[in-house]
Amino acid sequence: MLRTILFYARYLPLTAALTLLAICVPSAAKWCARTWGRAAIHCTGITLDVRLGDLDPNQTYIFMANHQSQLDIPALTTALAPWQIGFVAKKGLFNIPLFGKAMINAGNIPIDRGNRRSAMKSVDKAAERVRAGQSIVIFPEGTRATDLSCLQEFKIGGMIIALKTGLPVVPVTISGSGEALPKHNLCFGPQRTITIRALPPISTQGRYTLKEREIFKEDLYRAMSAAYTEQLNG
User: Fold this and answer.
1) Domain 2-233 maps to which CATH number in 3.40.1130.10, 3.10.150.10, 3.30.470.30, 3.20.20.70?
2) Of the candidates 47, 13, 7, the residue with the CA atom closest to the CA atom of residue 177
3) Where are the domains of the chain?
4) Are 167 and 204 in contact (CB under 8 A)?
5) Where is the Phospholipid/glycerol acyltransferase domain (predicted)?
């Protein structure tokens, strides 16, 4: 409990300060996001065990990651700092006063899951952002998992974004974050390490068409599920 209290005592003022800076100085928003990610992980006392293979820091990627915890965001922001990533996230987060504006300035993209037409516009916007050189992170499960023994079913929206851009997709598996801070819980668990592994990039161009998005989704799920299971047992 003391660990949790100390975390929020440091984390909340830090988040408020960086949020205001990202709003007042939009050009500093990405720096604020990276600083927030590193500081948030530091405040938890958690260690990141990151292996990204031979990813090119100069290449634009679409990162597809499983989702266990709120800690996934600062952990991935820190692990993927060379790409200055933005997240595709539910629209409700962007409606939070001040924080939502800071998220937009930092390059994150809202998706309205409750409105199909609006969601498709958001998908097109995300694809346009990626084609312009912005690497993004998509959680294809759509929400945080409660059963950490396996991956949840993937949603199709992330597949459409990837296939519309034709850019490489990097599957990323995360473990440990769900035990460190479980869904619907504000208190930290005993887990002190979050493991992040990147699989080799998948070239979608010429391999899948937009009509084959379900096939791509199934292939991606199988690859990530196998890697995730191996990670848990490793």
Assistant:
1) 3.40.1130.10
2) 47
3) 2-233
4) yes
5) 61-177
Identify which of 181, 110, 183, 213 has the alpha carbon closest to the alpha carbon of residue 102. Answer: 110
* pLDDT band at residue 93 using 50, 70 and 90 as cut-offs: confident
**Sole residue written with tokens 């819980």:** 185
For the sheet with 136-138, list strands across it: 47-51, 193-198, 169-175, 62-65, 136-138, 86-90, 109-111
Q: Decide: 158 and 67 in contact? Cβ < 8 Å.
A: no
Instruction: Specify the amino acid at residue 216.
Output: F
Alpha carbons within 13 angstroms on the beta-carbon side of residue 39 total 17
Q: pLDDT (tens digit, 9 = 90+) per residue, 131-186?
A: 888 899 999 998 999 999 999 999 998 899 899 888 999 999 999 999 999 998 88
Q: How far apart are CA 167 and CA 207, in angstroms?
A: 11
